[in-house]
Every structure is written in structure tokens, then in C-alpha cells.
Design goal:
This protein is α/β, with parallel strands linked by helices. It has four helices and eight strands. The strands form two sheets. Strands 1-4-3-2 form a four-stranded mixed β-sheet.
Length: 182
């Protein structure tokens, strides 16, 4: 059997509450431009809102004016989504805590070794992560290339998790593969 080869995330669709709640959070809090709205062609009582998360793909939200914000943690069961992560720049990351505090939004900040993360919840309890890598990806490579090499180095060295030294050495290894004038 031949594999189906996916090429990336096309879009993500979330079940939301009201139109305004979705716009307030995805555009108002997270800065994703609201692109357009149309009926949900699969469910007549819902609208389908489209937002731009910044990479040319789409985040969409099904809304219904009869629903209310859940305001409780989303289920964390087998088959449930644990969280949805979005990339932010380092400059933005440093501003996120103050901006969330201004809006009265609770959050948790974590150092993940190769990235920094801030976790918050949307109005319906879905966990959202704002993530910032601790490295710049070398030209001609992907972040996954850096992380795969850093992981190999971590395992070879018997270290617990990927740290700055693994990232720096991984980038050096990737750059060493380029041709150079001597």
C-alpha cells in the first residue's frame, strides 16, 4: 500500500460560541485578521468565520448565536486535542505577558528547552500556546532540520532534553555542510 503524502496543515476549524466572541479572541486578543464569513455549508444553523494566523493558511471557527462561551477547560481525553500552538516572534513573546494581564487573561509561561511557551485558554476552554523558538533557522533549512539534529546530539550525549548547546551545535553542523570559499 502506498502512503498518502500530506504537505502541511491546510486549515484548522474550531467549534466556537458566538460570532463576536470568536472575533474578540482570535482577532482582538491574538491579532489574527478576520478575513471573511460565510454560512457553514455542512450545518445550516452555523456561520463559518475565517481568520489569518499569519502564515497564509486559515483558522476557521464555526459559530452559532444561540451558544454561550463555555468558560471551562476543554476536555482532555483520548482523542481530544490537547492544545493548538502558534508561532510568535521573540519580540512579541516578551510582550505577551503584559498584554494578557491588561486583558485579564490568565496564562502559564514555560521554558521548553528549545522554545519558550505561553499557554492560555480561549473563551471556550481550548488551550492555546504561543511559542517562540530559541534559535534562528539557517537559510536553506527548516526548523525541523535543526530540531532533528539537536535531538540526535542530545541522545548521543545522554542529556535529558534539548538545550542551547544542542541547538548551537546542530546549527553549526548544518552550516558545515554548505560549500565555502577558503
Amino acid at each position: 500500500m502506498r502512503k498518502i503524502q500530506v504537505q502541511g496543515v491546510h486549515h484548522i476549524t474550531i467549534v466556537g460560541s458566538t460570532r463576536q466572541s470568536a472575533i474578540d479572541f482570535w482577532q482582538g486578543t491574538l491579532g489574527m485578521p478576520f478575513i471573511f464569513e460565510q454560512p457553514n455549508l455542512g450545518k445550516a444553523d452555523e456561520s463559518h468565520l475565517y481568520f489569518d494566523p499569519g502564515d497564509g493558511r486559515l483558522l476557521t471557527v464555526f459559530t452559532n448565536e444561540e451558544r454561550e462561551d463555555a468558560r471551562r477547560p476543554a476536555p482532555r481525553e483520548i482523542g481530544s486535542m490537547e492544545h493548538l500552538a502558534f508561532t510568535v516572534s521573540h519580540a512579541t513573546f516578551t510582550q505577551v505577558p503584559a498584554r494578557l494581564k491588561e486583558r485579564g487573561i490568565e496564562f502559564i509561561q514555560r521554558d521548553r528547552g528549545f522554545m519558550d511557551s505561553i499557554y492560555l485558554q480561549d473563551p471556550n476552554g481550548m488551550k492555546v500556546e504561543l511559542a517562540c523558538y530559541k534559535f534562528e533557522t539557517p537559510e536553506g533549512h527548516r526548523a525541523a532540520d535543526v530540531l532533528m539534529r539537536a535531538h540526535q546530539l542530545r541522545v548521543e550525549r545522554g542529556d535529558h532534553h534539548i538545550g542551547d548547546e544542542h541547538l548551537a551545535d546542530a546549527i553549526e553542523d548544518l552550516l558545515a555542510g554548505r560549500g565555502r570559499l577558503e
